[in-house]
Design a protein that fits this description.
Number of helices: 3
CATH topology: Helix Hairpins
Helix content: over 70%
CATH architecture: Orthogonal Bundle
Order of helices and strands: HHH
Number of strands: 0
CATH superfamily: YqgQ-like
Structural class: mainly alpha
Distance between the termini: 27 Å
Radius of gyration: 11 Å
Strand content: under 5%
CATH class: Mainly Alpha
């Protein structure tokens, strides 16, 4: 997984569409959804880790923009 779009496509496979309206909030909700999918063992550890890394990077970028 390389970017936020890839994470969105992963979530879409499970019927999860996230749009809150503010990008940083979208990223936070996507992270929660990923946690739930991982706890339910619906995604592999590799998918989980790579998606969380992408979300962490994107969250940091958005947080820096608001400063």
């Amino acid at each position: 997984m390389k970017n936020l779009y890839d994470v969105q496509q992963l979530l879409k496979r499970f019927g999860t569409y996230v749009y809150i309206g503010k990008r940083i909030w979208d990223i936070e909700v996507m992270a929660l959804e990923l946690d739930h999918l991982h706890e339910a063992k619906l995604i592999s550890n590799d998918e989980f880790i790579s998606a969380k890394l992408v979300l962490t990077k994107e969250h940091r970028i958005e947080a820096d923009k608001t400063k």
